[in-house]
Structure formats: C-alpha cells, structure tokens
Fold these 2 entries.
Entry 1:
Amino acid sequence: MAEPKKLLIITYYWPPAGGPGVQRWLKFVKYLPDFNIQPIVYIPENPTYPIVDTGLVSEVSDQAIILKNKIVEPYGFASFFSKKKTKKISSGIIPNQKKQSFLEKTLLWIRGNIFIPDARFLWVKPSVKYLKKYIEENHIDTIVTSGPPHSLHLIGLQLKKDLDITWLADFRDPWTTIGYHKALKLSSYAEKKHKALEKEVLNSADTIIVTSKTTKAEFSALTSKSIEVITNGYDVEKIEKQPLDEKFTVAHIGSFLSDRNPRILWKALQELVKENKDFKAAFRLKLIGATSQEVLDTITEFRLQDYVDNLGYLSHQEAVAHQRKSQVLLLIEIDSEDTKSIIPGKLFEYMVSERPIVAIGPEGSDFAEIITTTNTGVFFTYDEKEKLKSLLLKYFLEYQNQNLKVHAVGLQQYSRKSLTTQLAKLITYHS
C-alpha cells in the first residue's frame, strides 16, 4: 500500500469539548485512515470550552496525530467580570436585546467590534508560525480549516499565502449571515471588516466545504471557487436499546436559544393540556442542554412549567440515549431568513433514533427537505399552530395505542462513513 496522505486539520473544538461543534471532525478523523489518509489535528493547548464532555475523549482515533499550541483566550479575561454571562455569550446564547444588562451589551459590542472575526483571533499569528515549521519539516501539502470560530480560516489564509499548499476551508456554519451576527452591535467599520475577511477567505481557499445547499448558494455569490456540500451526519453509537419512556415525552435536545422560542408550540401544548385529560396526565416536556431563561419564562407564561423535566447539559452518550427513549423529538430553528441554511447537527442523530421529529423553522429551510425526503418527521412554519396541534394529538393517540413509530428511508447517505467517503474523494482529487 502507498504511504498514507498526510492531512493537517486545524480546528478549535476537540474533546473534551462538548456540544455539536466537536462532532464533525471527530468523526471524519475516525474514518479518514480507512481511506489511507493520515489525520494530523491541530488544536489549542489551553482552550476555554463553554461545554465539556470528557466522555468524548475515548472516541478520538488512536491513529490521529494531535498537535497542541497555547492560545490566549479573551473570554478568560472577560469571565473575571461575569463568568456566567461570558460563558453564555461564548456558547451562542445571546439574551433578548430588550433584556440585556449593561455588561451583556458591553461584552457583545467587544465580541463584534474588537474580536474580529471572533474571540480566537489572537491564536492566528502563533499558529501560523508554529504550523509553517511543522508543514515544511513533515512535507504536508494539504490542510483543512474548520470554522466557526472563523479565525481559524485566517490561519489557513496566511499559510496559503506563505506556502505551496492545498487549502480546504470547511464552514460548519455561515460567517456574516449566521443568525447571531446581527446581535453583535457591529460598527460599520467592523461589518465591512467581517465581510472583507469572509470574501478573502472564500476567494483564496482551493475548495470551500459547506453543510447546506443554501450556504453554497450564498457563498457562490461571493466566489467562483469550487464549493462542495458535505452535511453533518450520524455515527454508529454503542448504546443499548432503550425502553421507551412511559410518559408521552416531547424532548428538545441541545441549546434552546432565546430566539428559538416557538410560541405556537407552547400554545398548542397548553390547549391540548386543557382539552384532553389523558394528554394532561401523560404529557412531559423534556429539556436537555442549555435552555435560555426567556424560553423557560415563556413556558411558565403558558402554564406548562409543571410538565417540564429540565435535565440541563448531559454527555453525548446520555443525550443519545434520551433521543432513543423519548416519544417525540423537537427540532426548533430561529424564524429568520438567515437560518434557512442551518441544518442542526442533532438532526441526523434524531433521524436514526426511530422517534418522530416535530420540526419548526422558517419556510424554505434546508433541514425541512431532509426530514421530508427521509420520512422522519413533519416540518412546520411559525404560523401553522393548528396543523402542529393536530399532529401532536395524532402522535399522542398513536402513543396510547403503542404504535408511535417512524419508517425512515434513505438514511445511509448521511452516515459518517459515507460522508467521509465524499471528503476523501475531495482530498484525493487535490493530490
């Protein structure tokens, strides 16, 4: 067999980081050696992760070479003033504009106008210096940068300028069109700077990788470079078969942000609790992950607080177990034009859980098409309360008759192994 091709992967999120940001490259690295590609992963030595899941450390491939270099983390300094508020902002939980404290407004302004493109910008120069030497000494000709944080693309940009290498820029989320970007209180200078950096990255990388068709369309307006769609996916999880919850559990797993606050859902559930005694007796709302106070306050406004099991953040393994034993799974995206391109990573784990998905988001969402074509659930826009209520009642009646299930089709294309096949072809093409 030929010598393995070396691939340098520059990423910020890596075990013991928890949350969705770590999963994509953790899984690619797991399967790349099967395609005779040697993954070399460059990560910060002393990161500030808003979510930690030590259980993921055991999933790191023993064939991966891990490089670490120190990072200066501004969030570490900011937490001196308020650790709780800093942690929320660094994890993407941005308070409603009307309810922001002076400190929160200040932190957001700094995040958007001083930390350009993000709070990891101080890692760029030391990383370029360290990696230039490593790349030359180890004869590496292909690198991947994964963002957000999009500062990592600036590392790739400078390495591309300085060395004769192939650079693939992987966007797990968009840059200037992502939902929270508008909340950063950007000055006109900062906004122009973000857009200029985005355009330079898109026009300097050899290939752009994105996770959705909408992001590809958005980026196509900014560059003529090749753009490939490789979605997130699901992996084979070593979890024992779970008995279904006895209660009619409707579960949301992952960060429940203030802007993902579906009043039509709370209204539909409130009406079902009032109108149906059996539903009232059986219903539980299960919240797993960071849930904003605003969402909790709205649940109370609709008098649903007595039906809530707020379990907080759980390890990835525990979260997957709950996906498989909950009766119904909730997938909520912000009702905005900017979020049509967002395909939550948990969608793919939801799809193989064999539990029906109730999804709410903006019309034309990329994830709506995936749910529909795989027959894994039903998608609603934010003005379809009656249809949503009817479906929840239908699912409840099926639960009572013990025949609430889904019949999914075409899931194999979203397996992590299949997706790594796509990635490996891309890497080999550039060899």
Entry 2:
Amino acid sequence: MAQILPSIFGADIMYLQDDIHFLEEEKTEILHVDLMDGNFVSNIAFGPNQIAEMKKNSKMVFDVHMMVQHPKDHIDDVIATGAEMISVHYESTPHIHSILQKIRKAGRKAGVVINPGTPEAILEYLLDDIDYILIMTINPGQPGQTFIRKSLEKIRQTKELIGERKIQIEVDGGVNKEIAKECAEVGAELIVVGGALFSGDKKAQYQALREAIK
C-alpha cells in the first residue's frame, strides 16, 4: 500500500515545531527531510544538526534526502542524526556503491535518487545494495515546479526493473492528490508531498491525499 511522506521543507519555517506536532497527531509514519548544500542544488536547507534536533523531538521515521555534492564528506554526520532512511543522488558521486554500503552497514535503509534526466537503467547494478529508489519528478532543489508527466512511465519501468526484489519506489516533486493517485497506480509506494499538504487547511489536505492513494 502506498503512503504519503510529508516533506518538512514544504512547511512554514516559522511554525516548524507546530507542523511536526501536527504530523505526529496525524500518525505520520515517515517524515521526508531534505538536506541541501547550495552546490548540488541552489537552495540550502536542513543540515545534520537541525535534522538531529528534529529527530530527538519526534517519533517519526526520518527519510533524509541528501542533495549534496561529495556525499562521502557528509554521510557520517547524516548517519549520526539517527535518520532511519538515507538516500543519495546517483549523479552526486562516482562512488555510489561505497556510500550505499556504508548506510546499510550502519543499520539504516539505503536509497538511491535519480534526477528526471537520468535513465532508470543505471540502477541495474545497484539493486542488491538498496532498499528504495527515489525518482525525482521535478528538477531537485527548487519548489513550485510542475510534475514531469514522463515520470509515470519511469515509475512503471523502474517497477519492472526491480522485479521480485523488496525495493520500494519513492517519488518526489510537484505532487498533489491527483498526481499522488496516478503515481500509486503505476507502482510508487512512498509519495513525498510538500506544498500541496502544507498550504491551506493541512488537515483537510492530508486527508484528501491519503484518500487519493487508497
């Protein structure tokens, strides 16, 4: 069954604690947290210290999406935050295997992220080293973009590539309730939502999103 992963980057920074409390009350299982360095992507967001502080004050599973150049320089700090899920961009390092193996050795779930322009075929030789695949459905690091429709075919193809392996597909970018439904129908199990959840009536938006993927 698919589930919604709220992206805390989409929340109002002035009410971050309130929004985390809201998500806890809504029995959210997994919180998606972006880590951006201002180099791999233009934005800068939650560093390891901020993630660790949020983690200390939450019972949710943390899914940290590393949008950084040279992830090997940051991976120890991210593991130390206590995050249970950590994903790294295929495009960010020539040594993706070693980082994924390090994440798993630390007892965490390891994910690999692919950008819209990266074909899913590159995952073939990584499938034995990952627990989930994060398919970017917009270009990473900039909110407010439109969902790339070709991503639905990419999700289907990735599902076929995975076969019988116990690897989950996650999607992130430009998702609203209609798109969440479409993504779930073609095989996405973890659906990241930011602005479409945190703008307006959060409770009503969250309920609508959950209903859409049932």
